[in-house]
């Protein structure tokens, strides 16, 4: 058998395995959080972009929420603005807010839109200011019980889903930057994991997928846990098994599951075509956070 025929047979096999999932998820909303750490090289970016375009082509409704933390940090360095994090959130003064908005909305968002369009998709870039998509207020965080002011960091109050639905009901793929707005038109920097969960909750998404830089959530032996029921999440945090940037991520997952998002996954964005592997294969990859213990 020549390699062309062999390739065709392999693709047909993949399609046969994917078909039941395509039928089940037809016209359903899939929110994908594309973090800065999963944007590390062009090959990986291309694979994420191709997966998202393919989801739309086969009739699913992908909605992309992106981060861009490393891009913001680089830009802040260039402008000699100091950057620090408290509880995983970037302390955001006025200068930091300007630069974060410039990078997230002007650079990262448009790059993703452009890549999707180059692969045949029809992407529309949005941030929370567009159509007041993400309404928020100032967020306070607590360190050892003490209230900390971390500047223009936003707490989501409302996601106005109408604009997203207009796009997904049509041929478009919404691409959302994690910048929110308050009643006075002030912009706020919001953690992208939180925005993804809020968008998924508001859209009653079928699936929420976090692309990150580890192969899943690991137990104390360092083994990936394929399934974590929501009622076990707090225990893993208390025991220190889950720490650092994984804390806001897993809490966002728990929040989304508790508010009706059916399936929430944390998967390795460094694996080529990780989105398709998760959605269209029997085994799935990474960690699923669920209110029950069954993976279908
Ligand atoms: N139990 C755990 N399993 C996997 N990763 C963990 C765990 N606890 C902490 N982490 C850390 O969380 C990181 C992922 O969070 P973060 O860096 O904020 O991701 P992203 O940039 O994709 O939003 C991992 O790189 C890892 O260092
Ligand atoms: C308040 C806050 O921390 N906002 C984040 C927004 C970007 C983000 O979350 O990007 P990743 O998903 O790539 O980490 C920040 O300034 O880095």
From TrEMBL:
It catalyses: N-acetyl-L-glutamate + ATP = N-acetyl-L-glutamyl 5-phosphate + ADP. Residues 28-268 form the Aspartate/glutamate/uridylate kinase domain. GO terms for molecular function: acetylglutamate kinase activity; ATP binding. The record marks 33, 249 as: Transition state stabilizer. CDD domains: AAK_NAGK-C. It comes from Qingrenia yutianensis. NCBIfam families: argB. Belongs to the acetylglutamate kinase family. ArgB subfamily. It comes from the Bacteria. PANTHER family: N-ACETYLGLUTAMATE SYNTHASE (PTHR23342), N-ACETYLGLUTAMATE SYNTHASE, MITOCHONDRIAL (PTHR23342:SF0). The keyword Cytoplasm applies. Its EC number is 2.7.2.8. Pathway: Amino-acid biosynthesis; L-arginine biosynthesis; N(2)-acetyl-L-ornithine from L-glutamate: step 2/4. Substrate binds at residues 68-69, 90, 189. This is Acetylglutamate kinase. InterPro entries: AceGlu_kinase-like_sf, AcgluKinase_fam, ArgB, Asp/Glu/Uridylate_kinase, Glu/AcGlu_kinase, NAGK-C. Keywords: Amino-acid biosynthesis, Arginine biosynthesis, ATP-binding, Cytoplasm, Kinase, Nucleotide-binding, Transferase. Catalyzes the ATP-dependent phosphorylation of N-acetyl-L-glutamate. It is found in: Cytoplasm. Pfam families: AA_kinase. GO terms for cellular component: cytoplasm. GO terms for biological process: L-arginine biosynthetic process via ornithine.
């Amino acid at each position: 058998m020549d390699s062309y025929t062999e390739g065709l047979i392999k693709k047909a096999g993949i399609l046969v395995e994917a078909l039941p999932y395509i039928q089940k998820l037809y016209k359903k909303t899939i929110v994908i959080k594309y973090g800065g750490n999963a944007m590390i090289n062009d090959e990986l970016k291309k694979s994420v972009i191709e997966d998202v375009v393919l989801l739309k082509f086969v009739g699913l409704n992908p909605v992309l929420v992106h981060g861009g933390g490393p891009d913001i940090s680089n830009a802040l360095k260039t402008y000699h603005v100091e950057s620090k994090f408290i509880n995983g959130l970037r302390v955001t003064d006025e200068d930091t807010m300007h630069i974060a908005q410039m990078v997230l909305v002007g650079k990262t968002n448009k790059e993703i839109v452009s890549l999707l369009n180059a692969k045949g998709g029809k992407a529309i870039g949005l941030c929370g200011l567009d159509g007041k998509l993400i309404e928020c207020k100032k967020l306070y965080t607590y360190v050892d019980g003490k209230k900390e002011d971390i500047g223009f960091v936003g707490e989501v109050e409302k996601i106005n889903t109408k604009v997203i639905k207009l796009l997904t009901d049509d041929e478009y793929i919404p691409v959302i930057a994690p910048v929110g707005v308050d009643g006075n038109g002030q912009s706020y920097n919001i953690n992208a994991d939180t925005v993804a969960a809020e968008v998924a909750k508001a859209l009653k998404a079928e699936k929420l997928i976090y692309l990150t830089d580890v192969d899943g959530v690991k137990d104390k032996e360092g083994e990936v846990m394929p399934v974590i029921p929501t009622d076990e999440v707090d225990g893993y945090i208390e025991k220190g098994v889950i720490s650092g940037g994984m804390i806001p991520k897993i809490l966002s997952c728990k929040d989304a599951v508790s508010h009706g998002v059916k399936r929430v996954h944390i998967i390795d964005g460094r694996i080529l075509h990780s989105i398709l592997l998760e959605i269209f294969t029997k085994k799935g990859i990474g960690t699923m956070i669920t209110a029950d213990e069954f993976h279908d």
